[in-house]
Design a protein that fits this description.
It is a single chain. By secondary structure, the chain is mainly α. The chain has a domain at 22-56 and 86-129. It contains four helices and no strands. It has helices spanning 20-66, 70-80, 91-118, 124-133. α1 (20-66) runs antiparallel to α2 (70-80) and α1 (20-66) runs antiparallel to α3 (91-118). The protein is elongated and about 75 Å long. The model has no long low-confidence stretch (mean pLDDT 94).
Length: 148
């Protein structure tokens, strides 16, 4: 088993001269990005759920026809099946616009701020929070995995 080193690794240590306010601001930006990542996951879930629902309409149309309700089947087939979810777009287009626009810019702003202010280091706020909250020397409270 490797030797346990106390304290965060270099990638999670604040560079010299970086203020608490800077670490807190970067932490808030990172937290905001994490919210956007969660929203992105929900957007992909929407994409998959709407796609699945649209494919299920084929069976609904067939069942309405078999049950003797051709006008309902025709309305679903004509007006709902394959319909845009928002003006001019299926969900794949919404996902692509989101990924290429807002999401890409958000990630770029986060990366640029970290590169400029702390040499690209990530999660400094959380790393420092971990150091303040963990019980040194207690099992399960190690700063990082043992070196191999």
């Amino acid at each position: 088993m490797g030797q346990q080193v106390d304290g965060p690794d270099r990638a999670h240590r604040r560079p010299d001269g970086v203020s608490d306010a800077t670490v807190e601001a970067l932490g808030k930006l990172g937290e905001a990005l994490e919210c956007v990542e969660r929203a992105r996951g929900h957007l992909y879930e929407l994409h998959q759920l709407i796609g699945h629902a649209d494919l299920m309409l084929d069976e609904a149309v067939a069942r309405f026809r078999s049950a003797g309700h051709p006008s309902i089947a025709e309305r679903i087939d004509r007006d709902l099946l394959g319909r845009n979810v928002i003006a001019g777009r299926w969900t794949f287009q919404i996902v692509e616009d989101f990924d290429d626009g807002y999401h890409a810019l958000f990630r770029e702003v986060d990366r640029q701020a970290r590169d400029e202010l702390v040499g690209g280091r990530r999660h400094l706020y959380e790393a420092e929070l971990k150091e303040r909250r963990r019980s040194r020397g207690r099992p399960g409270h190690e700063a990082r995995p043992a070196e191999r």
